[in-house]
Structures are given as structure tokens and as C-alpha cells.
Specification:
The chain is of the alpha/beta class. The chain has helices spanning about 5-20, 25-35, 40-60, 60-70, 90-95, 100, 135-145, 175-180, 195-205, 215-230, 250-260, 365-375, 405-415, and strands at about 110-115, 125-130, 155-160, 185-190, 210-215, 240, 260-270, 270-275, 285, 290-295, 305-310, 320-330, 340-345, 355, 360-365, 380-390, 390-395, 425-430, 445. The protein is built from 13 helices and 19 strands.
Length: about 450
């Protein structure tokens, strides 16, 4: 037991919360208690939050007053969750065009702040949050951390590719501040080479994290380096994968290298920690207390676009927001007993899906990549680019002289998936670049 971690939890953390004007601790207790709520209780809670949000948006934003007037909607008309579908969705283009009109005028500038998405979907977006919502957003992250056995004060390592999340010039090689105060260590993984990976191994060993939160593509390179060198690391209690699709091959690799369980978590810049797997790994539980999710799909079991409504950000209400992600609902009740709805998230971004030329249905690019990597010859790093509805370009990092078997394997697999109607081209490169955000994308769609 880390005695200092408990001192931090009950003494240092509350003082830091008071200094930063946060209430993460009390909110975390409420979120933990709500895990015992029934689905009916969760939905009743969401209904009340939505009523408050709609009235607030109508009273205090130019954008929503105009939007509601266009459809003849007034907040008093909202009685049930089914009524919510009458409101038109908003998109990232709306945030960019109507930023000021969507910002609540009753919240002073000192009580709100600007944030932005990383632009990994091709459209970087600024938005506004009120400071009061930060406590529940951080508490949502902590609540999911506790599912791995973490407690406030336990050491958390962030293996991170988003440079914007680091203070200027701070790659966190010094350990005194993380060990004493923040109890978190951030390692920048947007650029990795032999020297940096060597440094990261030593930082990991010195820090001995209880929990690791990581982008899976970056952690894969780190784990492969550790395995290739025959190294051993102190085992954390769990790994939380965020920011990118988690392949089952990556999950197995992390389990083998780090000797702990791996959890897929759904996080967005705009809404925070939206959902996470529990130890049953039967889908991602939605943080119903934080966000109201809808999925626009022909059938409930099919993939469709996610509409997210942030229940707590009153600084700039995001109501039925097209977050440019896709998922499907997972039926039945989770064996863990929690009644929070669950989503299947084989891929997140809409651009992570290929479009079938047969019927226009979504085909999960990351799931397809998993099959390509898990079966047949060793493929290595690849990327699928759908350049037309019936044409896919496959980028392969490697020597074309050694890849004939790989090409045939990929061609055969895609012929099965798309019934032989998808044209396939190949291009060999020395390496496949990361996105500007530092993330790795398995799939890209050009139309």
C-alpha cells in the first residue's frame, strides 16, 4: 500500500481542489452512488437535466432561440426523451460559424474558457466551456479509473500524443512534482525513436504507475520495444485506451507486456469521458449522468452516427451535437450489474468506417484491420484509404519484395468482406505518417 497516496487522497488533493475551485471529490462520490441506479432512474435524471439545459439555451443564447423559433419549439413543450428528436442536430461547422451566438451571455467571461478539438477528423474546432462543469468531467474520468482499482492519489501515467496537453517545454522527465503533487506523469509519445523509447522505459520504472492512460498506437510501439528488448516493467492495475480505436491485437499485446487488464474508453474533447468498459468487457458503459447519447441508425443493433448532448456545459450548450463518431447500441444487461446503456465502439470516428459499395452500410475499418493483422502472414503497419465507393488504396510500410504473400492475404480478405466488388490497389512506403494531431489512423475515407 502506498501510504503517501492515502495522505494525498485525504489531505493534499482536497487542498488542491480548494485552490482550483473544483469539487471533483464530492462529485465522484455521487457518480459512484449512481452506479446502482436503475435505467429508469438514469433516464429520469437525464430528462430533468435536459429540461434545464433547453430552457437555459433558449433564454441565454442567440443561436438556440433562433433555432427553436424556426421549428416552432419552446422548452415548455419538452416532456419526454422522445420529444428531443424534434430538435435539429448541430455540427462542427455550426460551432465554427456561430461561436459567439452559441455562447451563453449570462455566464461571465471569468467563469468560462475556450477549448478546441485536435482536428483529427480534418476540422479543428473551438468551443466554450463554463468552469463549473470541469468538476463532473474530471470526476467522470476518475470514476472510470476506479473500475481498474485506482484511487485518488494513486500514480497515473499518461502516454500521450496530443502535444497541446503538455505545458510548454514540459515532457515531464522530472518526477518530483508528479510524485508529490499531481500524482500523474505525462510522457509525450507523438514522436518516438530508440532514444526516446529508452528514456520512457526508465521513466516508467521510476514512476511505477498504478494506472496507464494511453493512445493505443503509441503504446503499441512502446510495448513492442519492451518486448523486443526482453525488458520487464512494474505491472500497473490497468490500462485505459483512449483517443483511437483499440484493436484486439493491441489489447492482447498490452496484456502480455504489462501483465494487467486493458479497458477501452470513449473520450472526446468536447464532452470529456463519455464511456468506458468495465471488467466484464461487454461494451462501453455510457456516462449517463454526464451526457445524453443518441445513435442515428436504421436498426438499433446497427452502427450509426452519434449525437451527443452535454448535460453540464451551460457555457456553450451542445445539443444533439454531431460529434463525428459512430457506434451501435449493445443489447441486454451487462453482467457487472450496472444499468448504464452500453455502446459498441469497434471504431469511433465516422472516418474510421469504410462504406460498402454493395448497400452503403458501414464497415468498421479498425475491425477489418484487426482481421488483416491477426490472420495470415505478418502484415506490419498498414493504412486503408477508400478513395471511391468501390476503390480502396492500401498503404503498407515495408519492402515490396517481401510482401507478395501479404498482398494476396489482404486482397483475399477484402474480396470476402466486399463480395468481390471493391477494387484494391497497393502502395509501399518506408513509413506511414501520423495525423497532425499525433494520432495514428488505420482508415481514411476520401469521400
Amino acid at each position: 500500500m502506498d501510504l503517501y497516496a492515502r495522505v494525498h487522497e485525504f489531505c493534499i488533493w482536497p487542498m488542491m481542489e480548494w485552490r482550483d475551485r473544483l469539487r471533483t471529490g464530492p462529485v465522484l462520490k455521487i457518480l459512484k452512488a449512481s452506479e446502482g441506479w436503475s435505467l429508469e432512474q438514469l433516464q429520469a435524471y437525464q430528462l430533468e437535466r435536459l429540461k434545464l439545459l433547453l430552457q437555459h439555451a433558449y433564454d441565454n443564447t442567440v443561436f438556440y432561440r433562433k433555432r427553436f423559433a424556426q421549428i416552432g419549439f419552446e422548452p415548455g413543450d419538452f416532456k419526454t426523451l422522445d420529444d428531443f428528436r424534434d430538435i435539429p442536430p448541430i455540427a462542427r461547422e455550426d460551432l465554427n460559424e456561430f461561436l459567439e451566438e452559441m455562447t451563453a451571455r449570462n455566464i461571465p467571461e471569468t467563469a468560462r474558457h475556450y477549448a478546441s478539438t485536435g482536428g483529427s477528423t480534418g476540422l479543428a474546432t473551438r468551443f466554450v466551456r463554463d468552469n463549473a462543469c470541469l468538476s463532473i468531467k474530471k470526476a467522470s474520468e476518475y470514476r472510470f479509473n476506479t473500475w481498474m482499482g485506482w484511487r485518488p492519489g494513486d500514480r497515473t501515467l499518461y502516454y500521450w500524443v496530443a502535444l497541446a496537453d503538455f505545458a510548454t517545454g514540459d515532457t515531464r522527465r522530472s518526477l518530483w512534482k508528479p510524485l508529490l503533487f499531481t500524482r500523474s506523469l505525462g510522457l509525450f509519445a507523438g514522436k518516438l525513436n530508440e532514444r526516446i523509447l529508452h528514456e520512457h522505459v526508465h521513466a516508467f520504472k521510476r514512476f511505477e504507475p498504478i494506472l496507464v492512460r494511453a493512445f493505443p498506437s503509441a503504446l503499441q510501439r512502446f510495448a513492442e520495444y519492451v518486448a523486443d528488448k526482453g525488458l520487464s516493467l512494474p505491472a500497473p492495475k490497468g490500462i485505459i485506451s483512449v483517443g483511437e480505436p483499440l484493436l484486439e491485437s493491441q489489447r492482447r499485446l498490452f496484456h502480455e507486456v504489462f501483465q494487467c487488464d486493458v479497458f477501452n474508453c470513449y473520450v472526446s474533447r468536447e464532452c470529456g469521458n463519455i464511456g468506458c468498459e468495465c471488467s466484464a468487457h461487454e461494451g462501453i458503459h455510457v456516462a449517463e449522468e454526464l451526457v445524453y447519447l443518441e445513435i442515428e441508425a436504421p436498426q438499433k443493433s446497427e452502427y450509426g452516427e452519434i449525437l451527443a448532448t452535454d448535460l453540464w456545459n451551460f457555457g456553450m450548450p451542445l445539443i444533439r451535437y454531431k460529434i463525428q463518431d459512430a457506434a451501435r447500441w449493445v443489447p441486454s444487461r451487462c453482467s457487472c450489474g450496472r444499468e448504464h446503456r452500453r455502446v459498441g465502439l469497434d471504431a469511433a470516428r465516422l472516418s474510421d468506417f469504410l462504406i460498402s459499395p454493395l448497400d452503403g452500410s458501414y464497415v468498421s475499418g479498425s475491425a477489418l484491420t484487426h482481421y488483416l493483422l491477426a490472420e495470415g502472414p505478418k502484415v506490419g503497419r498498414i493504412k486503408l484509404i477508400q478513395i471511391a465507393r468501390d476503390q480502396v488504396l492500401i498503404l503498407i510500410a515495408g519492402d515490396p519484395q517481401l510482401s507478395k504473400e501479404v498482398v494476396e492475404h489482404i486482397r483475399h480478405t477484402l474480396a470476402i468482406v466486399f463480395k468481390g466488388v471493391m477494387k484494391v490497389e497497393f502502395e509501399f512506403r518506408e513509413s506511414i505518417p501520423l495525423l497532425p494531431s499525433g494520432k495514428y489512423s488505420f482508415v481514411e475515407r476520401k469521400f
